Amino acid sequence: WTQKFQEMTSISSYTLNKFRSWLDKKYQGDINELNENWGTHFSQFADVAIEIPIDPAIKGEAKWYDWTRYNMDRSTDWFTYVQNELHSVNEDADTHIKIMPRMFMDDSRSGGIDTEALAELTTMVGHDAKSFGSENIRPGKSSKWIEKYAYNWGIVTMFHDFMESVAPNKINVNSESHFLSSGQWRDLDSRTSYVRSVYWLATLLGMDANMGWFWARDPDGSPEDRLEGDLDFFDPGLGGAFAGSNNMQPHVTNEVTQVMFDLNSFSEEIIELREQRRPLRLFYSETTAINTNDYMTKGYELYENL
To answer: I need a labelling partner for 242 at 20 to 30 A (CA). Which of 31, 234, 258, 301 fits?
Structure first.
């Protein structure tokens, strides 16, 4: 994200030295093996250098893999530290990280987020899985799904299936559910049938709780100050989505309430459905995802066809 704006694109000496230590451990102190993999001539691990931002052209090479894998590990190390500090003063405290599903669903693995490791780390599964009930309003985003489906269900289903696979016994909390009209799609008359369907779908696949996203108003009912005046945002979802928020769509808010009553009424049956044996398994390889340009794209195509 920051690379797009040419900001925060370098790493600190601490990060570089930690990377060197990580490489030393991975290669078991054999600098010759690293040089063979990287095509370099470093005399010791303390001399290892890497250009950041790393060139996407070397994706699939050992240097790309090592940096990407390290970047994931250092992020997991940081979250582990934070959780350990919390548990040092409150050992029973629950922890949760809002993982953006695109960190798993997209082909890129350079963002430093290991979705599986973080799901295993925290006491609760966390994310902000989303769905689209109409065309995406963000520039350059595809809405090709409209040709086949009533709504875009793919992120909800595949991401929840994965999270249930790696952390099946943990509470699954969507702390920023983007199921309703908001920042990426806007429909002033959202269908109640869509609302009911998407909440049932997510819950059947593992979601235990969610906090819905909406655009607030000031106490007098007027739009928030930040939405007044010049709305020339680079992302139209940031400034122009207020009119499509569910707090101006009582039929949507009512449907969310009613579907929550229903989901809780059938909670025992829902759990039984979740715990059914799943005879079909899809093998997922993080190593391949790191090294391959279209691994997740093809993986989703397979998932969709199944």
So the answer is: 258
pLDDT tens readout for residues 280-299: 999 999 999 999 999 999 99
Query: 129-152: per-residue pLDDT in tens?
Result: 999 999 988 888 889 999 999 999
Instruction: Output the DSSP codes for 114-172.
Output: -HHHHHHHSSSEEE--B-BSS-B-STT---GGGGT-SSB-HHHHHHHHHHHHH-TTS-E
State the sign of the Cα–Cα–Cα–Cα dihedral 81, 86, 89, 93.
Answer: negative
| Rounded Cα gap, residues 281 and 20, in angstroms | 37
What are the phi and psi torsion angles at 99 (to 5°)? -85, 125
Higher pLDDT, 118 or 1: 118
Q: Token match 């059914």: residue?
A: 276
CA–CA separation, 222 vs 139, rounded Å? 28
Q: Encoding tokens for residue 86? A: 């919390």
Instruction: Provide the residue type at 138 as one letter.
Output: R
Which helix (H) or strand (E) covers residue 73, if one does? helix 62-89
- DSSP bridge pairs for 67: none
Quote the tokens at residue 203.
Answer: 């819950």
**293 token code pair:** 């340009």
Lowest mean pLDDT among 93-107, 169-183, 222-236: 222-236
Instruction: Say whether 200 sits in a helix, a strand or coil.
Output: helix
Question: 13-26 and 62-89 helices cross at what angle (nearest 10)?
Answer: 110
The kind and range of the H/E element at 212 are strand 209-212
Q: Are 45 and 26 in contact (CB under 8 A)?
A: no
